[in-house]
Amino acid sequence: MSMVSQAVSSFDDLLGGDSPLDRSVTITIFADELAQRKSERQISLRQFAQEVHDPSARAKADLPLMKLARFGNVSTTKGSLRNNDNVLEIEGIEGDYDGGLVGVADAAAWLRNANIAALIYSSPSHTPDKPRFRVVCPLGSSTAPEQRERLCARLNGALGGILSGESFTLSQSYYFGHVKGASAPEVAIVEGRPLDAANDLDAAAIGRHGTPYSPSPAPLVTAVSAPDGDDDELDWQPAPDWDRIESALSAIPVKDADHQDTGGRDLWLRIGQALHQVSGGSDDGFDRWDAWSKDGEKYNRRDQERTWKSLGRRDGKRVRIGTLFDLAKRYGWSQSSAPGEPDVIDQIGFAASEQAAATAPTALRFLPPSACADTPSRGYVVKGLFAPRDLACIFGAPGAGKSLIAPHIGYQAALGRTAFGMRTKPGCVFYVAAEDPHGMRGRVTGLRRRHGDAPDFILVEGVSDLLASGSPDLAALRSAVAEQRPSLIFLDTLAMSFPGLEENTAEDMGRVVAIARSLTGHGAAVVLIHHDTKAQGATPRGHSLLNGALDVGLQLFARDEAGIVRGKLTKNRNGSCDRDIAFRIATECLGEDEDGDAITTALVDELAPGAAPKREKLTPSERAALQIFEALSTAGAVTEDAWRKACVASATVSASADADSRRKAAKRAFEGLARKGAVLMEGGLVRRPTSLENAFDQEEVD
């Protein structure tokens, strides 16, 4: 017997109490992958944990397989009882992880944070360097197979989206036991609630493809018994409308029956069952099924004939012609595209489909005006800017100050102080510094010196890739979010948090949005730090899907001649886009380096709403004078006299050949720059209106 982890070693744990791990469940055992024989065991998962690694073999293929489900006696053409058609009810949810990065202990910790009961056991191919395991979660009671996808997505979300896509296959079964000579097996028991009781996890559920879960179309089996249990109405069968049936059949691409992800053999069988039922098993039905199937990659006439004969012998609820019509509608077929009027059978089939869909959970709500008026406010994290569960983006050109304003707002929120005149609700803030974490440490140190300590502001370092399938960084971040429940999360920058991202593709940008949205599941607002387009348009760089998904967009413009950085709200679901957001750059001294030189960091100096002067354009002479000043300042402090002489000597301020005219032009340029706040002249020296002349040059990679 394998050694079970300390999670089940104590006497109290073994007693179990009312734990779902002690509920007796049906586990179906298949002797091998052919699954032509099955047996059932009534056992609790706590008991099963003690023997999950007992079977031994020289190769994994010789081990048995398990499934928390009851199967009937419907076999495939190859005699396998392990197929979706044959699942009668489920007792739990299994998930498979083979990414080789996340360990059993990590998965156990995440499920413990989510309060989900589970048995986790290493798979036969597991090694300490490349961990692989199965997660088995009991349900509170036996459940219909149609609910499995939703519950599996709930489990996948709790585990940070690391489960393989095969975990979502209804009849997928898993090897258990150990291979002789392989690494020592691992087992962990996690106490908690049954998975079907964790409705609060649906907001962060993750589907088969690593995106936020949305229910698949209604199950292919659409025939449902009448509410009173009387099937007489559905048994009534008028003559088939073959024209209409052929029209619907032509709308369904046979290639979708060649691949499991788009329906596979299950789709092929459903269509065959529908045609078999409506034709009474006659050649009329077979010929149409056979003609449709011939264009498929896997067409085999002998298999076609064998399967047709077996369709009439299948147990369970019959698939009726309404299933075919319902399938065709998913591919764009409509009543109007079919000849003739809808017949009674289609109406019955559609009604059956509606009954089936009605049993599935849905978020639909129907509200009269009075209920709308009673709707509570969305709440806020930063009032008028960020609300709970928002997805926002701060974007601008390189050097615009995105990595200055973001930690500034986050720090104020952690302290519960106003930011740019907006109230904040104090809460935990995660600042994910995927780019230049060392520089961000200095900035946070500066914020602490200026504003005081903020223990709830957490700098997150070490994130290298949130985009990769089964990303351990993403899993760890989701786990921390679930445990600490931050109200605000910054990802700085999008490009460094999601390396390898194809920004202009809907698929990749959709995955970024999905991952960011998954981090909002516990109420946090997520803010992406990103670049704008080369043309400085009013949307973030990349596919338009990102901008469409945003609740808030804040565009920053690099400092103007007065040294002011201005922000413009391009999108705001929490208030007006006219809010005045502007700041100057200040420096905070952090100490001295080994050479005695000052160590400084750039910080935000907010300008009160309305305090930023109206931006004025510089004349050509003023711009030329400012460029001369910038060139002189690279050598140190600039005196008024040196600047004046350089401007008079240059032909860029004035092209006049007359020296007196050039002096007058230089004087007008100086006065204009001073009036517009572009320079300050004090004590014979000239400087910019911020003590950090090159602040934005230092921020180019923000």
Could you tell me how far the N terminus lies from the C terminus, measured between alpha carbons in angstroms? 56 Å
Tell me what the CATH architecture of the largest domain is: 3-Layer(aba) Sandwich
The average pLDDT is 83
Q: Helices and strands: which structural class?
A: alpha/beta
Lateral strand order in the biggest sheet: 14-13-15-16-12-17-18-19-20
Beta-strand portion reads 15-25%
Which CATH C-level class of the largest domain is it? Alpha Beta
Low-confidence stretches: 1-17, 217-237, 340-360, 691-702
- What is Rg? 33 Å
Assign the CATH topology of the largest domain.
Answer: Rossmann fold
Please tally the β strands and state the result.
23
- How many distinct folded domains? 4
**Apparent shape:** elongated
Number of helical regions: 22
Structure commentary:
The chain is of the alpha/beta class and 702 residues long. Helix content is 32%, strand content 18%. A hairpin with a 2-residue loop joins strand 22 and strand 23. Helix 7 (264-279) runs antiparallel to helix 8 (283-293), helix 10 (321-330) crosses helix 11 and helix 20 crosses helix 21 (659-675). The chain is elongated, with a radius of gyration of 33 Å. Residues 1-17, 217-237, 340-360 and 691-702 have low confidence and may be disordered.
